[in-house]
Design brief:
This protein has 14 helices and 16 strands. The protein has two domains: 179 residues, Aspartate Aminotransferase, domain 1, CATH 3.90.1150; 251 residues, Aspartate Aminotransferase, domain 2 (3-Layer(aba) Sandwich), CATH 3.40.640.10. Helix content is 39%, strand content 15%. The protein has a seven-stranded mixed β-sheet with strand order 4-12-11-10-9-5-8, with helices on both faces. It has 460 residues and is of the alpha/beta class. Bound molecules: 4'-deoxy-4'-aminopyridoxal-5'-phosphate. 4'-deoxy-4'-aminopyridoxal-5'-phosphate binds next to α5.
Length: 460
């Protein structure tokens, strides 16, 4: 078996040219719409959509389950699934029915009034993620922002501690990496930070409990905000004992543990919190729980609620900095109820996780057979490959293994053969309608992609 095959960059450039040409030729209508989008900043509805490989994004025609059809009439097996927003599949029937009912029969989306669905959803979130008290948002970003404010009220401390190369949405406090002396500095690419990072943030590497202990000892950290496994810089899994140590250190330092499971929900029906028996003080989730309808939530412990409630000056019911007019609206809450009750069920997770295992094994088999120095990591229903081996154990190490050319080659090779993975790195997610045939198709295309890359014959 070959080991650590090096990538021939000239060959990669030739292959990339071929894939780019094929992509352009296959998508004239998408290219035309992109070319005509003169009134969109960056020619896309949101700047990150420029991340899709090939020079322009595919334009959506239809999306059902895990099948996407673009405006050129081409269909794809979708493993990107809205970067987790569509973990329930696109337009799941139960969610669509509930949303229709709300819109057409009940009527009213933004009435400023609660509906009975809200308590059902709160109770269900408690069952899955342990915490007793919930508030709703429309995005995970907002859930993080508002929960950070509650953490500051509860602890009367100013700072948030995060892990290097984490992502929790466009939350000002989080875009930090450790500087030379361990003090937080802005991470590369941090767009328009409001204040120097060290005023708001402490930062350490994932899996480094000693550094965490050192930084918490300053006594100024309100909350450690973390994913139980990093998922936005490839998947970086916790080493054995790390998460238990984080919990102990937070308790000892009087710091709240704030767990963001927006992506790691893939670990199971109750996220990593239930699968790995974690004990958050604050819990954040967004994206998937509304089956595609904007939804998010944060949960707090009874103790956090007590501490926040004890601050008579904190304005939580008007314009004090926590909340959004559209948050908790009747449509969003009905979508969360239907999705949690009928779509993202324990049985659905069992199937999705089994498929992700099959997916991961397929990728690993090609890595082993060809000898490329890559790795693949699974986190429940999601799987991701990384151009590094062994798999990185910190965010910084994972960031250093980024390879834009390889990313583009793999993404285009996949898209040109009817498979979509996330535009950000190489993540694949399973949803309730993903099938073994879909997974096996990816395995087949991935094998062909790597074989061409490491091959020595002429490029076809
Ligand atoms: N938390 C995590 C862990 C995320 O990965 C993301 C987005 N990728 C967010 C929060 C923010 O989600 P949104 O952009 O939907 O607000």
């Amino acid at each position: 078996m070959p080991t650590d095959v090096t990538i021939d960059r000239t060959r990669l450039a030739t292959l990339l040219d071929r894939e780019r040409s094929a992509y352009t030729a296959a998508h004239p209508r998408s290219a035309e719409l992109f070319g005509a989008a003169d009134h969109l900043f960056g020619r896309v509805p949101m700047t990150w959509m420029a991340k899709w490989s090939g020079g322009f994004p595919l334009y959506l025609d239809t999306a059902h389950g895990n099948t996407i059809t673009d405006v050129d009439g081409r269909t794809y097996i979708d493993f990107a699934l809205g970067d987790t927003g569509a973990m329930a599949g696109h337009s799941p029937a139960a969610t669509v029915a509930a949303v229709r009912e709300r819109l057409e029969v009940g009527g009213g989306v933004t009435t400023m009034l609660p509906t009975a669905d809200a308590e059902w959803v709160g109770a269900e979130l408690s069952r899955r993620f342990k915490l007793p008290l919930w508030s709703f948002t429309l995005t995970a970003t907002d859930a993080n922002r508002w929960a950070i404010r509650l953490a500051r009220i509860a602890t009367r401390r100013p700072k948030i501690l995060v892990f290097s190369y984490c992502y929790h949405g466009s939350v000002d406090e989080i875009f930090a990496v450790p500087g030379p002396d361990g003090v937080a500095v802005a991470r590369p690419g941090n767009a328009g930070p409001p204040v120097p990072m060290d005023l708001t943030t402490r930062v350490v590497e994932f899996n480094d409990a000693a550094a965490l202990e050192r930084e918490l000892a300053h006594g100024d950290v309100a909350a450690v905000l973390m994913e139980p496994a990093l998922t936005n810089i490839g998947i970086v899994l916790p080493e054995p004992g790390f998460l238990e140590r984080v919990r102990e250190l937070c308790t000892a330092a009087g710091t709240l543990l704030m767990i963001d499971e927006t992506h790691t929900f893939s670990a199971g029906w109750g996220g990593a919190t239930t699968a790995w028996d974690l004990e958050p003080d604050i819990f954040v989730i967004g994206k998937s729980i509304g089956g595609g309808i904007p939804s998010g939530a944060y949960g707090i412990s009874a103790e956090v609620a007590r501490l926040v409630g004890a601050d008579a000056d904190a304005d939580l019911v008007d314009v004090g900095g926590v909340g959004g007019t559209l948050a908790g609206n009747a449509l969003s809450v009905s979508a969360m109820r239907a999705t949690l009750e009928q779509v993202l069920t324990p049985e659905a997770f069992d199937g999705m996780i089994a498929l992700a295992t099959r997916f991961t094994e397929g990728v690993q088999a090609t890595i082993d057979r060809t000898g490329v120095a890559w790795s693949v990591q699974q986190l429940g229903a999601r799987s991701e490959y990384r151009f590094a081996s062994p798999a990185p154990t910190t965010g910084t190490a994972s960031a250093e293994s980024a390879d834009d050319e390889l990313d583009e080659y793999v993404h285009l090779f996949m898209a040109n053969r009817g498979v979509l993975i996330t535009p950000f790195h190489n993540m694949a997610l399973m949803c309730p309608t993903t099938t073994t045939d879909d997974v096996d198709r990816h395995t087949e295309v991935f094998a062909a992609c790597v074989d061409e890359l490491v091959g020595t014959g002429p490029v076809a």
